[in-house]
Write a sequence for this structure.
């Protein structure tokens, strides 16, 4: 079974080896990376991995800021995608945690009844009070999340999707595939092997185009999303996204929504022994360990440079002191008179 992971990156160098190694452990055979405007050595590390036959690395073809969608449009014509049995579209902070069989993608596909697509729900992992960036697996550091069935005030959560080669594809979306013929409904399940809701299938339903209720949907798999990581890395992530804080207050909504630590879930740590061994194999390839270390050093240097800027010092303090409740939860607490 050929399974190709497709992703877009910018300044993700310190996290590449873990993500590639993890996906190799769960059964991904091929990788298509698109990069743009990297300043931390991400592109050089990907080029080196490409020279060893581990990944395919292309410059992002985007002619505007719609980087991901233009890359996905290009990916559809790439041999590494057209020759795949399955395509997995995900980001480098997302890890597919499979709960059945040998905990690999083929076991998930079998458990779901070999459908034409599988859409797996996010579970957002909190920062957990981790301030300092350290070079060790993300999945080992962050173990707390929201209640899996509800995030803030919403029971509908976003998904990412595995797509089989015979899916009646219109185009790849970042969260789900789209198909043109509404009458030709493919066999498309959630992470519990249940047919996805009709409203989710329809591209015309804008409100639920990439989300649907998560209750009971993670029986066979969960998509662990480490959107925050350490506070250090979150600051660098904001900088990467060209955050312009001049003349406006920093909006901590994204942080608060995803920093709900009400739940503990360590199930993904079942992969740690195999993950460590696979990272070591990748680092043993000529030049890879050195390029990884250079990206780590660049990440730390960028953090240090940001913390010389009073605006980022202010941002860091705001996040350290942010409410542990997202806006929706804070409103409920205020309404019922609790502090």
């Amino acid at each position: 079974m050929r399974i190709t992971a497709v992703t877009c990156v910018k300044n993700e160098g310190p996290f590449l080896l873990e993500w590639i190694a993890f996906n190799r452990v769960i059964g991904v055979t091929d990788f298509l990376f698109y990069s743009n405007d990297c300043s931390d050595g991400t592109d050089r590390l990907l080029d080196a991995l490409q020279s060893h036959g581990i990944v395919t690395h292309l410059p992002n073809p985007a002619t505007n800021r719609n980087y991901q969608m233009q890359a996905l449009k290009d990916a559809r014509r790439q041999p590494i995608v057209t020759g795949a049995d399955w395509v997995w579209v995900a980001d480098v902070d997302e890890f597919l945690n499979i709960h059945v069989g040998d905990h690999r993608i083929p076991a998930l596909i079998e458990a779901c009844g070999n459908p034409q697509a599988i859409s797996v729900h996010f579970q957002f992992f909190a920062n957990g009070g981790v301030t300092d960036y350290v070079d060790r697996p993300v999945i080992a550091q962050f173990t707390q999340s929201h209640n899996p069935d509800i995030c803030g005030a919403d029971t509908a959560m976003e998904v990412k999707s595995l797509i089989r080669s015979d899916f009646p594809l219109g185009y790849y979306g970042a969260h789900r595939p789209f198909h043109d013929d509404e009458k030709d409904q493919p066999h498309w399940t959630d992470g519990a092997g249940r047919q996805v809701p009709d409203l989710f299938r329809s591209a015309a339903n804008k409100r639920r185009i990439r989300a649907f209720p998560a209750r009971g949907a993670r029986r066979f798999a969960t998509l662990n999303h480490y959107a925050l990581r350490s506070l250090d890395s979150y600051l660098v992530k904001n900088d990467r996204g060209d955050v312009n804080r001049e003349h406006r207050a920093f909006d901590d909504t994204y942080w608060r929504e995803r920093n709900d630590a009400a739940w503990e879930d360590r199930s993904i740590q079942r992969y740690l022994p195999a993950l460590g061994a696979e990272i070591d194999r990748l680092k043993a390839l000529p030049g890879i360990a050195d390029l990884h270390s250079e990206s780590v050093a660049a990440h730390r240097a960028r953090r240090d440079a940001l913390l010389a800027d009073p605006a980022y010092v202010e941002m860091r303090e705001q996040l350290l002191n942010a409410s542990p409740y997202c806006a929706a939860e804070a409103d409920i607490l205020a309404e019922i008179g609790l502090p």
The longest strand covers residues 156-164. The mean pLDDT is 92. The radius of gyration is 20 Å. The first helix runs from residue 13 to 25.
